[in-house]
Hints:
Elements: E1 6-8, E2 14-16, H1 19-28, H2 30-38, H3 52-64, H4 69-118
Antiparallel strand pairs: 1-2
Amino acid sequence: MYDIGISIGTDGSLSLSDTTKLQDALKNNPQKVAALFTTPTNSTDPTQPEGFAANLYDTIKNFTGQGGLILMKTKLLGDQINQTAQKTTDLQSRIDAQAETLRKQYEDQLMYISRLRVS
């Protein structure tokens, strides 16, 4: 990329840093410039249909595709939300049961006190 005047920033962005290099490369060897974008970086076979764009697509697909990182993280977070909701429901049920037990004990105590006053 540098040989044709394209630089890669620290954030991964591409920029045209030297238009003269690109113009010279396109004039002197346009097939080589095209191969940079159409041939995988690890391939010497220019007939392969992959290239920079395909490699970029594959990388993005690893994040966004079926079984990709984003989908897996979303599922994991959804599962954690569901587990937390279930724990909250279970805890609320236990609180409600304990509150009912305490209400019943309170009513029993009131009845007992009421009987003592009558006697």
